[in-house]
Design a protein that fits this description.
Layout lengths: L5 H5 L5 H11 L3 H21 L8 H19 L8 H31 L9
Length: 125
């Protein structure tokens, strides 16, 4: 697992000073940021295991998508362009179908989790 930390988060800012100032404005220490990033990476790893590893896309689904979605989309975006063959587009289509299925399964999983969740107020604000 790649270790993201204080320094790697700073790359998205114009300067390290700007990053430091932003952390101070939101009340984060570099240790707390590292902890948040580590938790997020663990979540991503879990979601990959829970959903990505069990998605199977059939050859029929790929062929149907190619015929019904891919070819019309290419033709609409670039009339006159030679449409890649099914074999040339297979990896791209399989990835799109896989990601779509993962997104749908995650949404269903989260909806179910929300339905089961109970919020208990310990102290009124």
């Amino acid at each position: 697992m790649e270790r993201l930390n204080f320094r790697s988060g700073a790359r998205n800012f114009a300067s390290p000073l700007e990053f430091q100032q932003r952390l101070q404005r939101v009340g984060l220490t570099s240790e707390k940021l590292d902890e948040i990033v580590e938790q997020r990476l663990k979540m991503e790893k879990y979601l990959d295991f829970r959903f990505r590893n069990f998605v199977v896309v059939s050859q029929k689904e790929i062929a149907d998508y190619y015929r019904d979605v891919y070819v019309p989309r290419v033709q609409a975006r670039a009339p006159g362009r030679i449409v890649p063959s099914l074999e040339q587009a297979r990896a791209e289509i399989e990835k799109a179908l896989t990601e779509g299925r993962i997104e749908s399964e995650m949404d269903a999983f989260l909806d179910t989790a929300r339905e089961r969740a109970e919020i208990v107020m310990l102290s009124p604000v």
